[in-house]
Design a protein that fits this description.
This protein has about 190 residues and is mostly helical. It is built from eleven helices and three strands, in the order αααβαββααααααα. Strand 2 (about 80) and strand 3 form a beta hairpin.
């Protein structure tokens, strides 16, 4: 939690980031991408590691799924961490709320850190080493939009808890409330794997 506090204190001192959060609806996609890179730099400064940030379009994701033989019609994630990279959906980034970039970068960055940690406790290590990403594939294939199994994973509970804490701290320190840009519903909140 101390590191999350440090992350927040540095984010709120970045005028470019705060200005974009205040004017999110009028911020271009390229500027939102640039902001994500800035947030990544703060994350790296605080945690000593940052995954590569990459972007994809829904069409690219459907083509990837087609190549893998997966359900093309499954919900397309807003963002996800895989193989040391954080993948952001450009369409969802453009239509997201003003907390999305910072919040989801922190959430997925937390997953990146989880994968890098070598826990001393064998039980904790086993929990975080469990390859539960197949739950995500299963829920996509069965069109389970509630994603109950995925969100119950210890790694997701940990990441969501810290993500909510960071959002709450940023709101307290800046007075900026979350403002929805487009009505993308519950899916934008819950599909941050």
């Amino acid at each position: 939690k101390k590191s999350a506090d440090r992350f927040v204190s540095l984010i709120v001192k970045q005028p470019e980031i705060i200005d974009k959060k205040k004017n999110w609806q009028d911020t271009s996609l390229d500027d939102k991408k640039q902001m994500l890179q800035q947030v990544g730099e703060v994350f790296e400064y605080v945690y000593g590691t940052v995954p590569e940030i990459v972007f994809f379009t829904p069409e690219e994701e459907r083509a990837r799924r087609r190549t893998l033989g997966l359900n093309e019609d499954a919900p397309i994630n807003a963002a996800y961490h895989q193989n040391g990279k954080i993948h952001f959906n450009e369409e969802r980034l453009q239509s997201s709320d003003n907390f999305f970039a910072v919040s989801v970068m922190f959430h997925e960055g937390t997953h990146h850190r989880q994968h890098l940690n070598d826990f001393d406790n064998s039980w904790v290590r086993r929990i975080f080493d469990s390859n539960l990403t197949n739950i995500n594939v299963y829920e996509n294939e069965t069109n389970n939009r509630d994603r109950d199994l995925y969100t119950m994973q210890p790694s997701e509970i940990h990441a969501y808890g810290l993500q909510e804490y960071v959002e709450q701290q940023i709101t307290e320190k800046t007075g900026i409330d979350k403002v929805r840009y487009a009505d993308v519903g519950k899916e934008i909140k819950n599909v941050h794997n």
